[in-house]
Design a protein that fits this description.
The protein has helices at about 5-35, 55-60, 65-95, 100-110, 115-125, 135-140, 150, 155-180, 185-190, 195-205, 210-225, 230-235, 245-255, 255-285, and strands spanning about 40, 45-50. With about 290 residues, the chain is mainly alpha-helical. α8 packs antiparallel against α11 and α11 packs antiparallel against α14 (about 255-285).
């Protein structure tokens, strides 16, 4: 049992890391809040004083605000559904004994380590190019007209690219959970004549609940800030402008740091709303 002295020593040793982490988070957040109440134009006069909630009103009253919020939520929801469903399937397949199992697992996880900009460029030029892309040649092979993915199916293209990037993460977390399953329980259910779908629904899926929750929360945090894939492929056109991209666009076009900071505060609020919703919707059933 830890003594009072050992706990004090532990707190003292952890204090520098905690202070550094708090400073890393609080300093940018405080600066964002301060700038959101100012008219700050770095290339056109600098700090022009306080404007109150004017930046917030301007940002939320923009005709692009609510479409960007919907685009953000669409990407998050679509990617979560795709990665969790396919992640469960891949985790169950990778858990089966096979030749070269280690190599297969590495190949499945590899896309997660590719930079978002690089993966977006690969998909844009190698797969989705309507003339020389692999998908275009595949369509032609079956006698169909090639699809101009980034204009005709822009949102689906973004979802496909981002899902490809995050599927390895979901697979890795879910595979770890699958490997901790009680094999004796599964074997007993199989011996009792329970079909595979029943074993999956009543034994495997409840066991994966915690892993699914981890995937939901972590991916949601990062998916709220999807930017590089949109910048490289569609440039925010064709209904793919997310809230993060709108903030970038507003700052770039108007050179108004205050307006962009107000958008950043809205993004923080949206992130907290989504996180709380997911924790309430999924987390309450973890201990059941």
């Amino acid at each position: 049992m830890a003594t009072q002295h050992s706990r004090s020593v532990a707190r003292f040793m952890l204090a520098p890391a905690v202070i550094l982490l708090l400073g890393w988070m609080l300093v940018p957040l405080t600066a964002t809040l301060i700038f959101s109440f100012k008219k700050y134009l770095p290339l056109r006069g600098g700090d022009l004083g306080w404007v109150g909630f004017d930046n917030y009103v301007r940002f939320v009253s923009s005709s692009a605000f609510w479409p960007s919020v919907m685009a953000t939520l669409t990407i998050i929801g679509s990617v979560l559904v795709i990665t969790i469903i396919l992640g469960i399937v891949l985790a169950l397949l990778l858990d089966q004994p096979m030749w070269g199992q280690g190599i297969v697992r590495i190949l499945v996880i590899a896309p997660f380590f590719v930079m978002p900009t690089v993966s977006a460029l690969v998909w844009k030029n190698m797969f989705m190019d309507p003339i020389n892309g692999i998908l275009a040649h595949l369509w032609k092979f079956f006698g169909a007209a090639p699809v101009e993915w980034l204009t005709q199916a822009s949102m689906q293209s973004i979802v496909m690219i981002v899902s490809w990037q995050w599927l390895p993460f979901a697979t890795l977390i879910l595979l770890t959970s699958v490997q901790s399953l009680d094999r004796e329980q599964l074997e007993a259910a199989e011996m009792d004549g329970a079909p595979w779908i029943s074993r999956f629904w009543h034994l495997i899926l409840p066991h994966l609940a915690r892993a699914i929750t981890i995937v939901l929360l972590i991916q949601t945090i990062f998916l709220l800030s999807v930017f590089a894939e949109i910048f490289v492929t569609t440039g925010g056109a064709f209904g793919t402008k997310t809230l993060t991209y709108l903030i970038f666009q507003r700052v770039l076009e108007s050179q108004n740091i205050g307006l962009g900071s107000a958008g950043g505060v809205y993004a923080i609020i949206l992130a907290n709303i989504v996180a709380i919703f997911l924790m309430r919707a999924v987390g309450k059933n973890l201990d059941s």
